[in-house]
Every structure is written in structure tokens, then in C-alpha cells.
């Protein structure tokens, strides 16, 4: 007999959870961490679990201690990598895990364990694909130095306003993911160190995955091995690399989707995957820098036998075509379809730019009659720079718009 709608044919299978602890030379902290964590999980965690200690290149007594703990506790497993790197340790552990949900936390237990089940529950219920702890949202309670507070808030503000992310804290050492979803992302994550967290989350949102946040209690470990300033610099390098990858279309990942999504209102509008605005702007800036240099190289020789207005017109025509075509191919990825309409709309923008840059040249000579060639170029380039943001928005929302009413 068929079961009635909404009634399961048997007991629901509980999701299994693997809590990974990446360690590097942590012989002092590891035993207390594992004993505290296993006691908490045994008493308070309602899902099947195991703890994985992943040693990544330790040179002290960490690995023998990890083996001893794995022998002492039935639900503790120990693995080892020859090279250092938190990202590398998590990739190895998450790829090999038999669990439905993989998580990780730092060995110092800076994050309160009370947030573990709320974070995992959003994944077990099917609500989200990635879940993270946050120290920066309302409800979080933290204790840390002013330097780390300023750097953390500045870095996450850059992600929020540059990439348009929906999460507030990229680097809290307290994260979880559905195993089947995170594995394809791991193949695309290049960083094996501290930028791993940010890269994973940016790739997740870029590919339309849902990231759930849980406010945490967090206390700074004064014995932390993290070199904050060096890590911040490495993170900025990673952001530039990832922005370029996104702008080139290389950050798209095929990830599993729920077979039966939850019902929605029939008139509901589902948002498209979050766009990476910074990635597009980086490509636009590179193209703009090249065409600005090209303009200067054209204007100076043309100015030898043409008036300022005519030289400006000739140089702008040539560079405008190059700029539009380069942005069409690389920044906004509009390689298919007709080019006539695109270049016609770009032509109208060109006329506006020409009018303003010509006014800059004529205004310069009105104020400084003896102005030389280099001063002329400086005036035009400065004017063009002021127009850059407006031009970017116009290209994105008008010239290269995929659909217009």
C-alpha cells in the first residue's frame, strides 16, 4: 500500500557529522581539546558523530598524541599530512570523510561549542549547503584585541562591499558543509593555507549556494600561531586572484542541487546566484588602464600636426573601439550575438566622453594658454578618470545588458 502524502515509509536516517580538528605542532593543546570535545558530543550532541584529528606537518609530539587519542576513544580518528597548511588539512579530511556533513573547529576551542548543533542543523534540515560561525553579527559575544578587531572588520567589509557577499565573517574557525556539495568546491579552491575559508565561501556564493550564519561566543587565544598582518596581506593577494578568476568565468562549479526543493509560493521570485561585482570591476580596470595608456600614446604624436580638439577626437575614436571590444569579450563576456547595437550604445557614451574631455582641453588652454602636451594629456586623463565609475555602471546596466525592456 502506498504511504499517504507527507508520511515517511520508515524512520528518517540521521545525518552523520565529522568534526575535523586541523593541528600543527599542538602537543600541548590537543589532549585537552579532544577530551573536552568528546565529552560535550557524548552528552549534548543528538546526531551520530566522529572526531577527526588531521595533523599537517607537525614536528613535535603532536602525531604520537593524536594516535594515542584515536586508540583511547572509539569515535576519534587520526590522519596525517606531510606538509603544513590548514586548507590542505581540511581538503584531505573532508574528501575522505564518510559523513554526510563535515565541519571543522580550531584546536584552541576559542569558539563556544554551544553553536555546533545550530550550525549543523541548518545543513541536516536541507535549509543550507554551507554554515559558518560569525563573530560579527548581532548576538555574538567576543573577547579579542583591538588590532584583530579592526583588521577583521576591515577585511569583511571589503568582502561585503567588493564582492557583495551575504555572510559577515569569513575567517571564524568554525564551519560546516554538506559533504556532497563541498567536494566539487574543494577541487576549485587553490589556497592550502588561511585564505582557504574565504575562497571556499566566495566560490559557494558565486555558484548560488546558501550560506547560513550562527552567532558564536568567541575568546581570542593569546597563544595563537596566526601571524595576523602576514595573513591579511596573503588574503588580499588571494582576493585579487579569485576576482580575476571570476571575471574570466573560471569560478563556475557544478554542484549537486536538492532533488526535491521545498515548496514556495507560486508567485515567488528566486534570486539568481550572487554576482561578483569586484571581479567584474577588476577586469574593467585592467582594460581601462590599457586603453588609457593607448590613448596617451596616440594623442601625443597626433598633436604634432593636429589641433587639441581634433587630436583628442582621433585618439578617442580609436581607443573607444578597442575599449568596447575588450570589455565585450572579457569583462562582460558578451561574445555571442550582434555587435552593432553594442557599439551603437557605446558610441553614445563616446560622444559624452568626447564632449567632457574636449571641454577639459579647451578649459585648460583658457586658464593656461602656454600649456604643453603633457599637461594636456594629464587634463584629459584626469577627466576620463572621474568618468570611470559612471562608465562602468553604464556599460554594465545599459551597453552590455543581457536583457532590456
From TrEMBL:
Pfam families assigned to the protein according to its UniProt record, in alphabetical order: Glycos_transf_2 (PF00535), GtrA_DPMS_TM (PF04138)
Principal cellular location given in the protein's record: membrane
Record keyword Transmembrane helix present: yes
Residue span, GtrA/DPMS transmembrane domain: 284-400
Gene Ontology CC terms: membrane
Keywords: Membrane, Transmembrane, Transmembrane helix
Domain Glycosyltransferase 2-like: 19-183
Protein name as annotated: Polysaccharide synthesis protein GtrA
Amino acid at each position: 500500500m502506498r504511504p499517504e502524502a507527507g508520511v515517511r515509509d520508515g524512520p528518517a536516517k540521521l545525518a552523520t557529522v565529522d568534526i575535523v580538528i586541523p593541528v600543527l605542532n599542538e602537543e600541548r593543546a590537543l589532549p585537552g581539546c579532544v577530551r573536552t570535545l568528546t565529552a560535550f558530543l557524548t552528552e549534548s550532541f543528538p546526531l551520530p558523530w566522529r572526531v577527526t584529528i588531521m595533523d599537517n606537518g607537525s614536528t613535535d609530539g603532536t602525531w604520537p598524541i593524536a594516535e594515542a587519542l584515536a586508540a583511547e576513544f572509539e569515535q576519534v580518528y587520526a590522519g596525517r599530512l606531510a606538509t603544513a597548511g590548514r586548507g590542505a588539512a581540511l581538503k584531505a579530511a573532508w574528501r575522505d570523510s564518510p559523513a554526510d556533513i563535515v565541519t571543522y573547529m580550531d584546536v584552541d576551542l576559542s569558539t563556544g561549542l554551544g553553536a555546533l548543533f545550530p550550525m549543523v542543523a541548518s545543513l541536516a534540515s536541507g535549509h543550507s549547503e554551507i554554515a559558518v560561525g560569525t563573530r560579527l553579527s548581532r548576538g555574538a559575544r567576543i573577547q579579542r584585541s583591538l588590532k584583530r578587531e579592526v583588521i577583521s572588520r576591515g577585511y569583511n567589509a571589503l568582502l561585503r562591499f567588493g564582492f557583495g557577499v551575504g555572510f559577515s565573517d569569513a575567517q571564524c574557525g568554525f564551519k560546516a558543509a554538506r559533504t556532497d556539495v563541498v567536494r566539487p568546491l574543494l577541487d576549485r579552491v587553490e589556497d592550502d593555507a588561511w585564505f582557504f575559508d574565504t575562497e571556499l565561501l566566495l566560490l559557494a556564493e558565486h555558484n548560488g549556494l546558501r550560506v547560513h550564519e550562527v552567532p558564536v561566543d568567541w575568546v581570542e587565544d593569546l597563544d595563537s600561531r596566526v601571524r595576523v598582518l602576514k595573513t591579511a596581506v596573503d588574503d588580499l593577494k588571494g582576493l585579487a586572484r579569485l576576482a580575476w578568476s571570476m571575471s574570466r568565468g573560471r569560478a563556475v562549479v557544478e554542484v549537486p542541487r536538492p532533488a526535491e526543493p521545498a515548496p514556495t509560493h507560486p508567485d515567488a521570485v528566486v534570486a539568481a546566484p550572487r554576482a561578483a561585482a569586484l571581479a567584474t570591476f577588476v577586469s574593467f580596470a585592467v582594460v581601462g588602464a590599457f586603453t588609457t595608456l593607448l590613448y596617451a600614446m596616440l594623442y601625443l604624436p597626433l598633436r604634432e600636426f593636429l589641433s587639441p580638439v581634433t587630436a583628442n577626437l582621433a585618439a578617442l575614436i580609436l581607443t573607444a573601439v578597442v575599449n568596447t571590444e575588450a570589455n565585450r569579450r572579457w569583462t562582460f563576456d558578451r561574445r555571442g550575438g550582434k555587435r552593432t547595437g553594442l557599439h551603437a550604445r557605446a558610441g553614445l557614451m563616446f560622444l559624452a566622453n568626447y564632449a567632457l574631455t574636449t571641454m577639459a582641453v579647451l578649459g585648460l588652454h583658457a586658464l593656461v594658454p602656454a600649456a604643453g602636451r603633457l599637461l594636456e594629456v594629464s587634463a584629459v586623463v584626469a577627466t576620463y578618470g572621474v568618468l570611470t565609475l559612471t562608465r562602468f555602471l553604464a556599460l554594465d546596466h545599459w551597453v552590455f545588458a543581457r536583457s532590456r525592456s
